[in-house]
Design goal:
By secondary structure, this protein is α+β, with helices and mostly antiparallel strands. 22% of the residues lie in helices and 32% in strands. A four-stranded mixed sheet has the order 2-4-5-3. The protein has a three-stranded antiparallel sheet with strand order 1-7-6, covered by helices on one side.
């Protein structure tokens, strides 16, 4: 299996129910097999995209790499306040190499824990 890590902001640990819900959301997205879009974008514009998920205490380069599943980054940049961002996942990311969400296969979270104050990390296998 392939292994990945994902960092996110949270005030506390995920419950077992939240872990299962996260797995289900990801597996549902994989089943839809939507295209994965990646593009370097201006940091200011990228931060303004509704629904963008990032660790905002982190320092990001300008331009920053934006990854979106199912919706082209150019569409999100053109209408950053529009509803499209709430319909998918949009991240700052330097490491994804998938062309389609279905390439993930089955997704299982094997670990969740704190890496610093307010920052959590999941480790998953696919």
């Amino acid at each position: 299996p392939d292994k990945l890590r994902f960092d996110f902001t949270s005030k506390g640990a995920m419950t077992a129910k939240q872990v299962k819900q996260a797995e289900q959301i990801i597996n549902d997205m994989a089943a839809r097999n939507e295209e994965v879009y990646a593009k370097e974008a201006s940091l200011a514009v990228a931060k303004s995209i509704q629904g963008l998920r990032a660790v905002f205490d982190e320092t990001y380069p300008d331009p920053v790499r934006v990854v979106s599943v199912g919706i082209p980054v150019e569409q999100l940049e053109a209408d950053p306040d529009g509803p499209a961002g709430s319909k998918t996942t949009i991240e700052f990311c330097g490491g994804t190499h998938l062309r389609r969400a279905g390439h993930v296969g089955q997704f299982y979270i094997v670990e969740e824990g704190a890496i610093s104050k307010g920052i959590r990390r999941i480790t998953a296998v696919t």
